[in-house]
Amino acid sequence: MSFTTSSQPSAARQAAARSGDAAPSAWYALAVLTVVTLLAFVDRGVLVLQAEQIRKSMDLSDFQVGLMQGTGVAIFAGLASYPLGWLADRFDRRLVLAGCVLLWSAAVLASGLAQSYPMLLLSTALVGAGEAGLVPIVYAMIPELFGESKRQTANSVYALASQATGALALALCGWVVGWVEAVRPLLGAELQLLDGWRLSFFAVVLPTPLMMLALFTIRLRRRMPKRAEPATTGGRRPPSAEVRVTPYLRRHWQALSCFFGGVGMTIFGFNAVGSWLAVIYARVFGQTPQQLGAVLGTMVLVATATGFVLSVYGMRFLSRRAGMRANIRALWISVATAVLCFAMMLLATSAHQMYAIQGLYIFLMTTAVMVYPTALQSLAPDALRARLVALMSVLSAGLVAIAPPIVGLVSDHFFQQRPNGLLIAAVTVAIPALLLGMALLIRCERLYEATVQAAREGSAS
């Protein structure tokens, strides 16, 4: 009995796989995954927009709201990420992702039904647990849909679409809140008495069945290994080096540790500065939230568009010269330029100068974000890819969580008396991390090439 993730590929899709081109069904699949991502953003965004109403309705403190929106979600997401990656590497990834959609939607529904703070905290944490599978599974599915020649374009399109859907999600959440109040008179007597934030939670999960069905219209070209015969293994797939993560990590520990360490330090350094920039603009340069929002919104839009162009066409140019090392080289070049940007921030004397420097920084960060998934996807064979992405997600979440408080401690203890002390603290923490990350990525180039080749052989076997 075979264990498959899709029906036998058609002749057109087989030809596309061999040539590296993408069949129309692959772009359709990417569109479905983008819409599912939008659903996740909406489900998460409605909690953000309704946080104040929830606080008043349930008489919560700001600390309790912070736990509900941040800590609980992060902890459960970290705990769930690898197990979901493990499932996605062993079973139909569409089925696992549909299960994630069902889990986080059920958790959103439970949040609307919660009658106490502990129940609400657990429900919102389970939203994070369900959404923890989204990134590992999507980035594991993209190589199943696109050949190598189109994979960077697909990753960049998904990253670009995710940026756009993130902004669209907030707008949709605002619309849902207004729509709920508009239709309240049409609801049953019991529903009319509920708080608006509860009705909003109920409303955003309505598309869930449709999204789950849409996932099963995706056609994947990868075929999972056959199950072993019951007579020899009792119906379970026998463990092998190709489907177990520990042997693979041991064989390629040097390349993987350099890559994980380099990317991890980059994420830490970027977040050490990025998480404090809004405060720095207000404290050092006197910028209001309105000024900051208008400028940064435009800046992110332009940087995302230009970063997309560079990640697609720039990588084609770099690939012709660096071959398989191109993704890693693009990453460490971005990190090196970011170090210069952060150093220049210390010399800025006006908000306009800071905006110009930050524009370059956002462009570099956006480009790195679009190149990084392709580099990570190439490091493991198909049967390990979701787990590898999950491991990186757990590491990233931890580093993102600790960077802001470390900067705060450095600022409080060493630079509190200086007008631009927070900026100095952020740059002081970020630059050493980025330099370490760049050094690890440079070392990773040669090791990366050998590991990618081994991953290709593992996928082909």
Automatic annotation (TrEMBL):
It is found in: Membrane. The keyword Transmembrane helix applies. Keywords: Membrane, Transmembrane, Transmembrane helix, Transport. It is a multi-pass membrane protein. It comes from Roseateles violae. This is MFS transporter. InterPro entries: MFS, MFS_dom, MFS_spinster-like, MFS_trans_sf. Residues 29-445 form the Major facilitator superfamily (MFS) profile domain. The chain crosses the membrane at residues 26-47, 67-88, 95-114, 120-142, 154-177, 197-218, 258-282, 294-318, 330-349, 355-376, 388-410, 422-442. The keyword Transport applies.
